[in-house]
Specification:
The longest helix has 29 residues. By secondary structure, the chain is of the alpha+beta class. The chain has seven helices and twelve strands. The strands form four sheets. It has a five-stranded antiparallel β-sheet. A three-stranded antiparallel β-sheet has the order 10-11-12. Helices cover 45% and strands 21% of the residues. The protein folds into two domains: 143 residues, no CATH class; 110 residues, OB fold (Dihydrolipoamide Acetyltransferase, E2P) (Beta Barrel). It is elongated, with a radius of gyration of 24 Å. Helix 3 crosses helix 4. Pfam families: LytTR. This is LytTR family transcriptional regulator. InterPro entries: LytTR_DNA-bd_dom (IPR007492). One of its GO terms (molecular function) is DNA binding.
């Protein structure tokens, strides 16, 4: 399932702070210069200064969320999934909207809070920002994200059985003997060792399905899944990197998002 696919994660507090400031700056610029919601018609003392305060209504919730999502990331053994990213984006937007509501009522307009007005606030003032704010936030999280790799222990005699989409299409091997899987259109080439010899079998499946059967495998590129224990060396840089695997003569490309995490893993690998 696509929502269970692992993705890169923004683990750095520094990068999280930077992206929160970028988001806050964009929101403040929109409020001051574009003046949506008839802001120009409201006579409020020190209006521009108070509008800048909405930037902090973005920064503080984002940093608060990052504190808790860090624990979530650790509990997943350093992995981050699409469903988690979507939850953070939606929950974060709701939290930012709620903080902005209280800031608007208590600070900007100096009024008493009215719980029944919160829904109207979300509908009239928060929802119009969804098409701009959430995609831009998701983009910034992606740009500042990186992947991490951790040693995965597996049973040396654990047998992996991969069922293809075609009838009677099955591949079986020990998890430790897996070398690589390469996606090609609707098929996947699976490389593994049997009796000390490299074997290659093609199966009608997806990398996501292969990954679900081999938890210890690492996706280093959108088309390649490898056994980290079988990596011989890494070369190149984050713009154009590749790895060589045991039993294979050609190089496997590594995407920029995975290069630094993979390099650090290999440096610390026992």
């Amino acid at each position: 399932m696509v929502f269970s696919r692992s993705i890169a994660y923004t683990s750095s507090w520094y990068h999280t702070f930077i992206l929160s400031v970028i988001l806050a700056t964009v929101i403040v610029i929109v409020l001051i210069f574009l003046q949506p919601f008839d802001i120009y018609a409201n006579e409020i003392a020190h209006k521009n200064i108070k509008l800048i305060g909405y930037g902090f209504c973005n920064i503080i919730p984002i940093l608060l969320i990052h504190f808790f999502e860090g624990f979530w990331f650790i509990r997943n053994q350093g992995k981050w999934y699409i469903h988690q990213e979507l939850f953070i984006l939606l929950f974060g937007f709701l939290l930012i909207s709620l903080v902005s509501y209280f800031y608007n009522i208590l600070i900007v307009n100096d009024l008493k809070t009215e719980p029944e007005y919160i829904f109207r606030w979300f509908k009239d003032f928060s929802l119009p920002f969804v098409p701009i704010f959430i995609p831009f936030w998701a983009y910034l999280r992606f740009r500042f994200s990186k992947t991490t790799m951790h040693p995965t222990l597996f049973e040396s005699k654990k047998e992996v059985s991969i069922q293809g989409n075609n009838q009677n299409e099955t591949i079986k091997f020990h998890e430790k003997d897996f070398i690589m899987a390469r996606a090609q259109s609707n098929y996947v080439d699976v490389f593994f060792v049997k009796d000390n010899l490299l074997e290659k079998q093609m199966i009608r499946s997806t990398l996501l399905n292969i990954k679900s059967k081999i938890p210890s495998a690492a996706q280093v590129h959108r088309s390649f899944l490898v056994n980290p224990q079988q990596i011989d060396k890494i070369s190149g840089n984050s713009r154009k990197g590749d790895i060589t695997l045991n039993y294979l003569e050609y190089e496997v490309p590594v995407s920029p998002k995975h290069f630094l995490g993979l390099k650090k893993y290999l440096q610390n690998r026992p």
